[in-house]
Design a protein that fits this description.
Shape: globular
Number of strands: 27
Strand content: 15-25%
Distance between the termini: 73 Å
Length: 637
């Protein structure tokens, strides 16, 4: 049996799952289900990335161990996969023993053969993304090109991976395997990057403890990206089950977001070449989602919560929309109005009406039993040799939108077939009963095939259709190559039930408007006069130094510069920011508060923050900062 091994990236457990996580995983799930129905032996891996500086800092801020933190947070992803009906065969965590041992074994092997060596690294580092950024790739004012945050200059002893040694071999491989990186625009990006020169990469850190120790030198921990990439191999027995690894690895494919394509198409293949292991068959990179044409961000409050979308609109409509709305590989825009439009047109009008009309006619004209006829060939049956290859070609190219277009064209043709044949007229004419049976049988078979075709994308809906059609089998366990048109005569159908209720657009718009009107906050204070506000002195300051207060889980000790003087301020923001994120930041400081001692440190002022807390989610803080680079000490009024 032909193998198909596909992976999502392992998701970093520093945040709650969002639409980007859902999108990648649903896409992997759909192709996995499709390949199973094509007769492939499928292995589908997902998991969580649980090491690194952000995890260590967050755990310290909460006063718990990093292990305790990741043990709790990774469950958010497992719960979402249940909600999204994800059919993964394995879920790997980078804190598992099977992974840790594999990472250390690979690190040791590369050291032994001279492909990892010790040196000193100096460069600009992005703490949130846990990566060094080359100077030619920096954003304005030495900021991270991906997240926009300030970079910090770091120098430390480090182990390096001699990846540059294998770059010519990797370039040759990609020249011979042009579909190894998809889509084409990402292939071109990777080739350009490789031909521009690749330096040896730092693969260890001494500045943190939460990571996998370097074997034989435990003051170093292995760089989180070197560690994370190896999960794909550790999950299929690279170290402890060579036979299993030989069985699955030749057919591995990775699906990732375009922001991490260099790790997967440069760093990881170079590591595999050094190990003497074959490269991934394909790395498929998808685009990013905006929301109503705006960049998705916490500060805008427009991050799409997949839990909420499923609860509000249903699982299969959400899955369908993500895969149908945007050509895979391109950036897409998420709009609830567009989702409602798809539900009403594609799902309720096209698919739902086809099922409802067909079953009602079979019930009315043939007592609910699928009729037989001497010849089941029809304009619908003649489309089968066309639609199945179209869907197959699209799925082989991860063109989910094209596959769904082909399926919906077939569904549309079946609806048109009803209008052309007018079964309600045939039913009134005794001489047309054979033709009526022919029409009803073909409509039934069109629905049965449609249920099979949509099964990878909308598994629950497929099962509901099959149940109403009177089919006892599970469509997800059927094979496309075993489908035979016209062999279901006599099958007893069940009462038609609405698949997708139509959503009243006007009522929906009213409800959306109501959502935009927030309730008055519970902590609203009494009105004050302008003379009261004038008593509060606020000025622009800059954080120049941050240190932890040993006796406190919440407080940082900050040194802030007002231009005309420097002050010490204690601030309870340890759980929300790392020292590196705060250092250099301009903030708004209340300067005329009476000094107060906190954990033995005298605090002379208060930094202003905005606090947001959504139901069921952790509180979030945002620093209030000046929009423009105005002088320190400027009065805020």
């Amino acid at each position: 049996m032909e193998k198909f091994y596909i992976t999502t990236p392992i998701y970093y457990v520093n945040d709650i799952p969002h639409i980007g996580h859902a999108y990648t995983t649903i896409a992997c799930d759909a192709v996995s289900r499709y390949k199973r129905m094509k007769g492939f032996d499928v292995r589908f891996l997902t998991g969580t990335d649980e090491h690194g500086q952000k995890i260590q800092a967050a755990a310290e801020a909460q006063g718990i161990t990093p292990q305790a933190l990741v043990d709790k947070i990774h469950l958010n992803f497992k719960e979402l996969w249940k909600v999204l009906n994800i059919s993964n065969d394995d879920f790997i965590r980078t804190t598992e023993e099977r992974h840790i041992k594999t990472v250390q074994a690979i690190f040791a092997k590369l050291m032994e053969q001279g492909d990892i060596y010790k040196g000193t690294y100096s460069g600009y580092y992005c703490v949130p993304d846990e990566t060094y950024v080359p100077e030619n790739a920096m954003g304005p004012n030495k900021t991270c090109p991906d997240c926009g945050r300030p970079l910090i200059l770091m120098e430390e002893e480090s182990y390096f991976f001699r990846g540059s040694k294998y770059v010519p071999e990797l370039i040759r491989y990609y020249e011979e395997h042009v579909k190894a990186v998809m889509p084409k625009v990402r292939y071109n990006e990777i080739m350009s990057f490789l031909k521009g020169g690749v330096r040896d990469q730092s693969v260890s850190r001494t500045s943190l403890k939460w990571g996998i120790p370097v074997p034989g030198d435990e003051k170093h921990v292995i760089y989180v990206w070197f560690d994370a990439l190896i999960n794909y191999a550790s999950a299929v027995g690279y170290l402890d089950d060579p036979e299993k690894f030989r069985e699955w690895w030749p057919d591995v494919r990775h699906m990732v977001g375009k922001d991490i394509i260099r790790f997967h198409c440069v760093t990881w293949p170079l590591m595999l070449l050094a190990l003497g292991v074959n490269l991934p068959v394909e790395v498929i990179a998808h685009g990013w989602w905006t929301v109503d044409s705006e960049k998705m961000s916490k500060s805008r409050g427009n991050v799409v919560d997949p839990f909420r979308m499923v609860k509000k609109y249903g699982l299969d409509p959400f899955r369908y929309f993500l895969l149908r709305e945007v050509p895979f590989g391109l950036d897409g825009d998420f709009s609830e109005l567009a989702l409602v439009g798809r539900i009403n047109s594609d799902l309720a009008n096209d698919l739902g009406n086809l099922l409802n009309r067909t079953l009602q006619m079979i019930a009315s004209y043939r007592d609910g039993a699928v009729p037989s006829c001497s010849d089941s060939s029809s304009p619908l049956s003649q489309l089968v040799p066309e639609v199945l290859p179209r869907v197959d070609e699209a799925m082989n190219n991860y063109a989910y939108d094209e596959a769904l277009k082909a399926i919906w064209e077939f569904i549309g043709r079946a609806n048109k077939f009803i209008d052309e044949t007018m079964p309600w007229k045939l039913a009134k004419d005794e001489s047309q009963q054979e033709k009526l049976s022919w029409v009803l049988l073909n409509l039934y078979e069109a629905l049965r095939l449609s249920a099979l075709l949509i099964a990878p994308f909308m598994p629950d809906t497929s099962k509901r259709i099959y149940a109403q059609l009177g089919q006892d089998s599970d469509p997800l366990k059927c094979r496309y190559d075993s489908f035979v048109w016209g062999d279901c005569a006599g099958t007893k159908t069940h009462k038609a039930e609405v698949l997708f209720p139509r959503i009243d657009i006007e009522e929906w718009k009213k409800a959306k408007e109501a959502e935009k009107k927030p309730e008055k906050p519970a902590d609203t204070q009494p009105e004050i006069g302008i003379e009261d506000f004038g008593k509060v002195e606020m000025r622009v300051a800059q954080v120049v130094h941050v240190e932890e207060i040993p006796r406190s889980k919440k407080l940082y000790k900050l040194e802030v510069d007002l231009g005309y003087e420097k002050r010490t301020v204690c601030s309870g923001i340890k759980a929300f920011f790392t020292p590196e994120e705060l250092t250099g930041k301009r903030v708004i400081l209340v300067t005329n508060l009476k000094p107060v001692k906190l954990c033995g440190v005298e605090s002379n002022g208060m930094i202003l923050c905005a606090s947001v807390k959504h139901e069921g989610k952790a509180e979030q803080l945002t620093l209030l900062t000046p929009e423009k680079d105005i002088p320190l000490g400027s009065r805020v009024s």
